[in-house]
Structure formats: structure tokens, C-alpha cells
Amino acid sequence: MSTFAKRKAPPSSEATCPTSFPTFPSTNNFLTDVLKKQPELYKSLKDKKTKLGVTLGHCIKTGIDNKGHPMIKTVGLVAGDEESYELFAELFEPVISARHGGYAKDAVHPTDLDVSKLTDTKIDPTGKYVLTSRCRTGRSVRGFKLPPVTDFEERRKVEALVVKGLLSMEGDLKGDYFPLHGSQSYAPKPNGMSIEKEEELRSAGNLFQEPDSTLLLSSGCGRHWPDARGIFHNDDANLFVWINEEDQMRIVSMEKGDDIKSIITRFANGTQQIQKVLQAEGADFMHSEHLGWILTCPSNLGTGLRAGCMVKVPLFSARPDFKAVCGKMGLQTRGSAGVDSASTGGTWDISNADRLGKSEVQLVNIFIEGVAQIIRWEQALEAGENIDEQVAKASLPAKY
């Protein structure tokens, strides 16, 4: 067992790296791929520390302790704070490039939340195929350590600051904050939300769970659970903000049907209002020209955005090339219950595949155009038409 593996959820003070280079049994992640090729990186980086106290050990522990996912290549690397991406750039950059299919060290990530630039294409004109649509992303607050390394008091400070911003929202964004049951960090609800409220959120698929995966536990995200974790939602229950899970904030805008413009508009307005309150308090979101919005896992850098819908396309999804075709169109497919799950009755969760290198507007447009095309193919198959020639030409829309 490695020195890292002896600590299931290390406090931020336990950050010393072993003197000798760690061994990797049979890992399946991008981190160990890089370290195996460049073992000298470990020696050159292991004694460095960010201004907030984050070391290489904090960042690589989850990748060394875990073999990875049998079906999906995991990253194996997390950031402990914003500076981690700069101080340990020699390691982060090749991992980021590998995870995102090639991303140059001097690349500039475009950020664009101008909803007027969204395509006018209607995803599901008939209303027959799309069940629900959503857009989610993360945000981090500058000046604080990220969830894998943050301590008890700092996590509470993040919660207080973010909740202040959320409770200031008005109009269709107005809502309330519900700490997880058992959390004692929020005075208006001293023991968190009720069991009944948890069940209501859980049954609707809007409650995040206590981490039980070794990836999250060994990263340190589960320390002091459930303290200072919770969920905000607006009165209409179509905007949710998760606080202090894997990221400091996960923002989700959702509703039934395919009105993605409405969903993105709500999402953009919400994030902008939260940012204004943070700025008034002398804080801001973590962001860089190179990496976009800074989040815990390198897989979510850039936009951190996943625009998706639950869509029922049993005929098209029965094709053996279904997932491959979606990939060519810049789309990612998941079963109806998430990653690795099977489809139920031909219902799939389809979303944009990329996060980094394209703006929010570009990724949402890729999603809209792609799913609209899939639905057109589904309708053609229902009519008994042959779509093989069309499908063979499937690709990412040239203008995006």
C-alpha cells in the first residue's frame, strides 16, 4: 500500500509526498500515463507548495490510490486551489491536453454566455421525443482552497459567501437554501433540511449524495460530511445550486421539454447575479484566459458546461454505430440513469462532449443542432426510410 493510500480522507495538513517515486499497479488514468513517461516530474514537483498550502500530494493522491474506472479513463488528478494549475503546470498541462483531445499550453479558452447567439433551431418541434433538458456547470470562489483540500472553517466561509449571493437573487431566480440534513453550519436551519425535504429532492433527482466512491473519498472531498453542504433552488424549482460537493458550486438549470434557450438564459442570469454579489464582497469566480473557469477536476475546465436532454430515440439508438455517430457530432451519450447505465426504452441522456477550447454558446449550439438531427433521423426511421447515407456524413457542424 502506498503512503497515499493509508489515508482515506486526509486533512489539508497531511500533504507530505513520499521521498521515493510511487508505484502504479494497474492504473487507468491520465495522471499515471504522464508520470510513467516522465518520472522526473515527481521529483521536481513533490516539495513545492502553493501560497494556500497545496502540495503535489494533495493533487495526485486520488490517481495513485485508485486503479481507475474499468470502462472510462479517469483523470487521476485534482486541483487543491487555483494556483495548483500554475505551480504544477508541468504535470497538469499534459494531463489536460490528453483528457481534452489536445490542448496547447498557450491556448486561449473563449468564454461567451451571450444567449442572443444561440441557434434558432428547434430541437423537438413535435414535443414527442425530448422529456427534460438541462444545463449545468461549476464555479469556484477565488481566494479559497478547493473541496479536496479545504478545511472545516474555510468550507463554512465559502458556504456563507455563496448563500449570501444566492439569497439576493430576485424574480424567477428567487429561492431558498437548504443545508444537508445534519449540517449545523447555517443558523436559519440549524440542523439542515428535514428528512422529508431530502426525500423530495432525492426523488426528483436533485439531491447529491454523500460520496462513497474511492475516487472522491481519497481526494478528500468527503471530509466533515455533511457540514456546510447544501442545495439552493428557486421557487419554481428549475434552478439548483449545489454547494461544497466536488466543486464549491454546481449550477443546474432545468425544465421539462426542449426550451434550451429559456434554460440557458436562466442559467446565465443566475451565474451573473451570483458573481456580482461576490465582487461586491471583494471576491470573484476563479477564471483564467488559458483554462477558462477553474474547477476541481481538469475534466471540467473551460466552460465546465454540460447541456443535455433526456431524449427517447429507440430506433436510432438501436443502431450499432449510435454512440460513434454521436461522438462525430460532438455529443456524449449516457444511459437514462447516468454514466455506465443502460437505456430504458430507448431513452438516452445526450449532451455536448467537449468542455475546453469552445465557448458556452458554441457548445450549446453543437448540442442543439446535433440532437435536432438525431430526432429527424428517428422520424425518418419511423417512416421506414433508409438513413445510412446521411448518417455516414455525420460530423461536427462546421460553423461551431
From TrEMBL:
<feature type="binding site">
    <location>
        <begin position="334"/>
        <end position="339"/>
    </location>
    <ligand>
        <name>ATP</name>
    </ligand>
</feature>
<dbReference type="InterPro" id="IPR000749">
    <property type="entry name" value="ATP-guanido_PTrfase"/>
</dbReference>
<dbReference type="InterPro" id="IPR022415">
    <property type="entry name" value="ATP-guanido_PTrfase_AS"/>
</dbReference>
<feature type="binding site">
    <location>
        <begin position="132"/>
        <end position="136"/>
    </location>
    <ligand>
        <name>ATP</name>
    </ligand>
</feature>
<keyword id="KW-0808">Transferase</keyword>
<feature type="binding site">
    <location>
        <begin position="306"/>
        <end position="310"/>
    </location>
    <ligand>
        <name>ATP</name>
    </ligand>
</feature>
<feature type="binding site">
    <location>
        <position position="250"/>
    </location>
    <ligand>
        <name>ATP</name>
    </ligand>
</feature>
<dbReference type="InterPro" id="IPR036802">
    <property type="entry name" value="ATP-guanido_PTrfase_N_sf"/>
</dbReference>
<feature type="domain" description="Phosphagen kinase C-terminal">
    <location>
        <begin position="129"/>
        <end position="381"/>
    </location>
</feature>
<protein>
    <recommendedName>
        <fullName>creatine kinase</fullName>
        <ecNumber>2.7.3.2</ecNumber>
    </recommendedName>
</protein>
<keyword id="KW-0418">Kinase</keyword>
<dbReference type="GO" id="GO:0005524">
    <property type="term" value="F:ATP binding"/>
</dbReference>
<dbReference type="GO" id="GO:0005615">
    <property type="term" value="C:extracellular space"/>
</dbReference>
<keyword id="KW-0547">Nucleotide-binding</keyword>
<dbReference type="InterPro" id="IPR014746">
    <property type="entry name" value="Gln_synth/guanido_kin_cat_dom"/>
</dbReference>
<dbReference type="InterPro" id="IPR022413">
    <property type="entry name" value="ATP-guanido_PTrfase_N"/>
</dbReference>
<feature type="domain" description="Phosphagen kinase N-terminal">
    <location>
        <begin position="16"/>
        <end position="101"/>
    </location>
</feature>
<dbReference type="Pfam" id="PF02807">
    <property type="entry name" value="ATP-gua_PtransN"/>
</dbReference>
<dbReference type="GO" id="GO:0046314">
    <property type="term" value="P:phosphocreatine biosynthetic process"/>
</dbReference>
<dbReference type="Pfam" id="PF00217">
    <property type="entry name" value="ATP-gua_Ptrans"/>
</dbReference>
<keyword id="KW-0067">ATP-binding</keyword>
<dbReference type="GO" id="GO:0004111">
    <property type="term" value="F:creatine kinase activity"/>
</dbReference>
<comment type="similarity">
    <text>Belongs to the ATP:guanido phosphotransferase family.</text>
</comment>
<dbReference type="InterPro" id="IPR022414">
    <property type="entry name" value="ATP-guanido_PTrfase_cat"/>
</dbReference>
